């Protein structure tokens, strides 16, 4: 009985402000964006979080994964970020160009708000 009472008081409690867990599959899919020169590009994220742009493997490593942000560092050391809202990824940031692009679904043509 005493060990039960001791374990009751010493159980680890979940922190109150713990963020919702990140779901890597939230970012998986194929997206389109137009660059600042108005050229259309395709961004694809595989189930293993492999990043392809225009079919080319970016050889980028995941550096951060949160509920609404997936960050990579490419082979040159530049940051590539995909940011989402509650529904889907909506922005793509390329540090090498210091530019953020709106993402649209490649299969449904949804516009980013």
Question: Can you describe this structure?
Answer:
7% of the residues lie in helices and 40% in strands. It is mostly beta strands and 113 residues long. It has one domain (22-105): Beta Barrel (Lipocalin). The strands form 2 sheets. A 5-stranded antiparallel β-sheet has the order 4-3-2-1-10, with no helix packed on it. A 5-stranded antiparallel β-sheet has the order 5-6-7-8-9, with no helix packed on it. Strand 6 and strand 7 form a beta hairpin. The N and C termini lie far apart (58 Å). The model has no long low-confidence stretch (mean pLDDT 85).
Give the beta-strand count.
10
Structural class: mainly beta
How many structural domains? 1
Shape: globular
pLDDT < 50 runs, ≥5 residues = none
CATH class: Mainly Beta
Query: What is the N-to-C succession of helices and strands?
Result: HEEEEEEEEEE
Mean pLDDT: 85
CATH architecture: Beta Barrel
Radius of gyration: 19 Å
Kindly identify the CATH topology: Lipocalin
Strand content: 35-45%
Distance between termini?
58 Å
What is the share of helical residues?
A: under 10%
Question: How many alpha or pi helices?
Answer: 1
The biggest beta sheet, please? Answer: 5 strands, antiparallel
User: How are the strands of the biggest sheet laid out side by side?
Assistant: 4-3-2-1-10
Organism: Lentilactobacillus sunkii DSM 19904
InterPro entries: DUF4828
Protein name: DUF4828 domain-containing protein
